Amino acid sequence: MVIAIHGHNFRTEVRSYIERMLHLLTHQYHAKIFFSNDFARLVQKHELQDYDQQLYYTNHSDLPEVDFFFSVGGDGTMLESVTHVGARQIPIVGINTGRLGFLATIAPHELEDAVHNLYKGYYHFDDRSLIHLDSNCNLFGDLNFALNEFTVTKRDTASMIIVHAYVDGEYLNSYWADGLIISTPTGSTGYSLSCGGPIVFPRSKNFIVTPVSPHNLSVRPLIISDQSVISLQVEGRNRYFLASLDSRSEIIDSSVQIAISREQFCARLVQMKEHSFMETLRTKLNWGLDIRN
């Protein structure tokens, strides 16, 4: 089996779990391993033993043919991992050494069992839809896709912006707000949720349109089919605005025209059989802690 591993950081108390994972992969299962440059520096920083591995650069065009991609970190690292994999749909194993972990669901103490389960086939694939971004200025280049959301917001100014939104060419609304979020069902538990958006199950095949601090209080989040194309035009008192695609951002102006659709490929996440989206909701959002339960 061939495995790539990417990560930026993990706490000292997690070190032993990571070392045990690497030991199992290389010594018990004799896997061929590729480290990202970031993870190689992390291994050196924590003085883990010198494993027989090769490096790849953090670009999806440089990633070799691998069977699984291990993402070591939090949800931000998972979003980066999706860009490393790109359209190849390599299964991504999310190892949560961060904080909340909606996407990276495997806890450090579960790592040893997770490695054994991969080799035994005790897992399933959870395919997540992605956003595809088109623009008249080639925003984000060939990384014009996102697992969570596309967001356009005001910059460091008190002035709100106006986002004119169209669905399949038909005018929807002009949002007077601090910004507008277009999220996937996966992204519904991210920035959209903090702005009052609904939680949407991952396979719902929807986009969620969520305004950020809207000026008109009657404006509410909206769920539409991801078979639609959402077009946006932005204006405001200031010339420049901030466009974000997951954790990547660029400065745009009012001349930029944006179209959002569903990407042709998906992100293939690996889920262990004991994990589910509902179990993740209960755990991460502390549902069920009411003493009446």
UniProtKB/TrEMBL annotation:
Transmembrane segments: none annotated. It is found in: Cytoplasm. InterPro entries: ATP-NAD_kinase_N, ATP-NAD_kinase_PpnK-typ_C, NAD/diacylglycerol_kinase_sf, NADK. GO terms for biological process: NAD+ metabolic process; NADP+ biosynthetic process. The active site is at D75. Its main location: cytoplasm. GO terms for cellular component: cytoplasm. Keywords: ATP-binding, Cytoplasm, Kinase, NAD, NADP, Nucleotide-binding, Transferase. Its EC number is 2.7.1.23. Its cofactor is a divalent metal cation. It comes from the Bacteria. NAD(+) binds at D75, G76, N148, E149, D178, T189, G190, Y191, S192, L193, S194. One of its GO terms (molecular function) is ATP binding. Pfam families: NAD_kinase, NAD_kinase_C. It catalyses: NAD(+) + ATP = ADP + NADP(+) + H(+). Belongs to the NAD kinase family. PANTHER family: NAD KINASE. Involved in the regulation of the intracellular balance of NAD and NADP, and is a key enzyme in the biosynthesis of NADP. Catalyzes specifically the phosphorylation on 2'-hydroxyl of the adenosine moiety of NAD to yield NADP. This is NAD kinase. It comes from Thermonema lapsum.
